[in-house]
Amino acid sequence: MATDSTSALVESAEPDGPAQAGPSARGPRARATTAYLRYVAGKLAGAAVSLLAVLVTSFFLFRLIPGDPVKYMTGGRQVSAEQLASYRREFGLDLPMWQQFTEYCGKALTGDLGTSYQFRAPVIDKITEALPNTLLLTGTAFVLYTALGIFLGTRSAWRSGKLGDRVNTGLALTLYSLPKFWLGLLLIIVFSVGMGPIPGLFPTGGMESGGETGFAYVLDVAHHLVLPVITLVAVEYGQTLLVTRSALLDEMGSDYLTTARAKGLRDDLVRRRHAVPNAMLPTVTLIFVNLGGVVAGTILVETVFSWPGLGGLFYQALSVPDLPLVQGLFFVFAAAVIVMNTLADLIYPLLDPRVGR
User: Fold this and answer.
1) Cα–Cα nearest to 316, from 332, 299, 333, 337
2) What averages of pLDDT result for each successive group of 10 residues across the chain (357 residues)?
3) Model pTM?
4) Short-list 90, 82, 97, CA closest to 114
5) Residues 294 and 342: beta-carbon distance below 8 Å
6) CA distance 227 to 195
7) What is the DSSP letter of 328?
8) What angle do CA 281, 32, 276 make, to 5 degrees?
9) Residues whose CB is less than 8 angstroms from the CB of residue 261 and which lie 6 or more positions away in sequence, other chains included
10) What's the Cα-to-Cα distance from 8 to each of 5, 115, 347, rounded to whole Å?
């Protein structure tokens, strides 16, 4: 009887067997997908909250700046109280603070960042006009200092403790600690104005000399680009070098590298194919943070070299103060960093599946 009952149980289970095998086999993958979607949703929600906080902060923070934008718009001329009131009414400065805030948030959510006081033009147009110049400067520097930092960082880590490592690390720390504006001014004094036997080789500022067209214009812009790019690369490459070096040193004692060497692989292949890819997660974080800085630009460097980008525009707007322009630029700067950080968070699980589980 026991045998019959056992057979009956087996027979009754057979039809359901294949149907139950599918979900059980797909279970881990489905759970991983669900976990990743929850991870993505959480990061996107956090980014949205951060953008909202930036929107609120940008409105109230810059109203603490001393100065009356309406008086700036009069150009120092003697004007009547009626004219001042007309200016304030034109730009909505006569409204209660809460009403200015609600109008600002409502317009910003639709892409309208207001009208610049000093340029009498939409803020978004001024940002769009200056953005390519900033991307040219900071984008060129970003590519150079990222490549240089990763290359020297991997070399230093692989030869840790040797003379080359000590020189690279010491130089990176020294340059990274220098203020960018100070280094920029020093380069202008030495290589633009000229010092001793060194003649002035590069322009003191600006983006172009004017009057050039075609390939001559490209060369002229490249000539103006040299010193500000050198300033950014000299200061920023050290951070990438140090992060890459530290991450690679953590991987150096791993068993899989010992196994790779035991199989007869050359050190160069072990480093390039095995060690570096597994040590790139902290460097990827830094790369995306720096990508956000590409859009934000470098205010002091652009100001020192009179580069017509977003950084110079921000400094110019602060001196008025041109509240709509300052608020709009601050929001764009912060949004670029937030978006890039969010993209880095979303890419992490693709580089390391343990992230996001």
Assistant:
1) 299
2) 45 46 56 78 88 84 69 65 71 75 81 82 89 90 92 85 87 90 90 76 81 83 91 91 86 72 72 72 82 77 88 84 85 87 80 61
3) 0.76
4) 90
5) no
6) 16
7) H
8) 20
9) 267, 270
10) 5, 82, 52
